[in-house]
Sequence to fold (156 residues):
Amino acid sequence: MEEFGINIFESINFYERYKSLSDKTRNNERRLEKTDKKQVLAILEKFDYKVKYVSKDNFYKIVDSLNNWTFNIHFSLKYGLVEIILGCKNNISEKFIGGASCVICEDIEYSKNIKSEELIKDPSFDSYETLGEIFKEALSLYEDMKREVLKLSHPA
Fold:
């Protein structure tokens, strides 16, 4: 990932926050293997986002456009795990930052020369309540990413 992207994710403490979310939820021995699309959409819509389910690739997506940037967050739910994919693209320069959260963490580790014992894993859930908590933290990361991108790409 380019330095601009690393700076964005470091400025919002992405690595620490995502690792904490993963560690907190990965203790679940049980997992909710199958989810009901309507229940998942209802949970996400409680956060006041327009959410679309992409059935072809089996994921939920939120897209926002602000100041020549298109931001997105995708949630792929499989086997009781939540893969969180964050990103944004400048519509003029076509600069892109982001990726799967686990990969973003790897990029941060590489940039800081961190030697971790194992990769940070996707959060897991055993109930819709836990899934809602994961969505809440992921959407907080998403909002912080948007704020930082806009701040750093248009300094005052």
